[in-house]
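Colleagues,

Please find the record for the two-part complex below.
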Amino acid sequence: MDLFLELLVAGLIVFGGVFGLVGSYGLAKLPDLMTRLHGPTKATTLGVGSVLVASAVFILKHQGSFSVHELLIAIFLLLTAPITANFIAKSFLHRQVDPETDLPPTGTECGWASFDVPPDSDDDEPSSLTIPRRNQR
Amino acid sequence: MLARLLPHPILTVTLVLVWLMLLNSLSLGGLLLGLIIGITVPLTTAAFWPGRPRIRHPLKITAYVFLVLWDIFVANLQVAYIVVFKSNKQMRSHFITIPLEIYSPEAITVLAGTITMTPGTVSADLSADGRSLLVHCLDTDDPQGQVVDIKARYEARLKEIFE
C-alpha cells in the first residue's frame, strides 16, 4: 500500500510537471497574445491541480490528517486565474485592437465595454477612450 | 438591526469558513477571530456592494462545480494537444459574440470565469450594456456551434441557479 501511494504521489507530480511545461511551452510558441492566454489559463490549472492532489495524499499518509490548504489553494486559483486573464485581455484590447475591424459586432446597440460607455451613464470619462488608440501612439 | 450588522450573511459564513480552513484546525479562538473578520469585512465593504446576490437553487451549485471541474480536466488535455501538435498556421482562432440571457452580475461573472477555464475559450470583454460577451476561441472550425454549446452547457444552468 505504501509503495502504491508513493507511486501515486510521484505519478501526480510528474503529470503536473508535464502540464506546467506544456502550458509554458504554449506561452512561448503561440503566435499572439490572445492565443497565448489559453496556455497559462488552462494547461497550468491541471498542472498545479495535480501537484496539489499529490500534496494532499502525501500529507494524509505522513501526518494521518486531512489538509484543507490544498483545497483552498485550488479555490483561490480557480477564482483568480480567469480574472487575471480578463485583465490582460482587456488591456490588450485597449492597446492593440481596433473594435471596428478586429472584433465581431456585439449584436446590441452598445459597443464593447472597453470602447463604449454604458447606455445610461453620465460618466464622460470613457469618451476619451473612444478615440482610436492607434492614432495616439 | 441584524440586517445592518450582517449586510451579506453568505459572505460572513464564507469568510469564517475560509479562515478556519486557513488555520487548518478547529478551535474556539480561531472561530472567534474568524467571526470578527467575517463581520467587519462585510460591514466595511458594504458601500461598494449594495445589492445582495440572489441564489435560487444552492444545491445545483454542487452539480455545476463538478461539471466545470470535469470540463477543466478535458480542457487541459485539449489545449495541451493543440499546443503540442498543431502548428500555428493550422490554428483557426476567432473572436465570437455570445448574446446573454442572464442579467444578474454574479451569474455573468461566473459564466465569464467558467468560459475562461474551459475548452479553448477565454472571455475577453462584455458589451457596454452587459448584454453580450466577447469570447476568444483558440481553435475552432465552427464558431456558431461554440456559442450554442456554451449557452446550453453553462448559461442555462447558471440561469437556473441565479435567476
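Chain A touches chain B through 52 residues (CB under 8 Å).

Comments are welcome before we finalize the supplementary table.
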